[in-house]
Here is the input.
Amino acid sequence: MAEPTIGGGTGRMVDVALRAEMIYQLTGSNLSSPQSAELNAKARAPGIQKWINLTNAEGIAWIVFLCYLDRSYWPAIGGGLAGAGMLLKYKYAIKSGLNSDEPPTENYQNPEAVYSEVYSQA
Here is the structure.
């Protein structure tokens, strides 16, 4: 008996969607968070590192679960490469930000003024 398939046996729609989603996720994760971490590292490095550690723990749990479901180590290869890449990017961003003389993008002197300004324009 033939196995059920998606898309008339090709699965191309799922393949295309997965590859597109990967590019969207890579773009979002590489351009937003490490950049903010670098720009505001002097004030936020300890908090950023805490969330990196929590995210890594969650990622490891998911990878272990997916390896169990798949009965293989393939999820560990993909998850390990992605996790290591993001860890290196954040470490580099924090180090660069701490060594930078550029001003932060956040106002720490009067945060209520920034809040009022942002939400008065909405």
Summary: The two ends are 59 Å apart (CA to CA). Residues 49-100 form one domain. The longest helix spans residues 41-70.
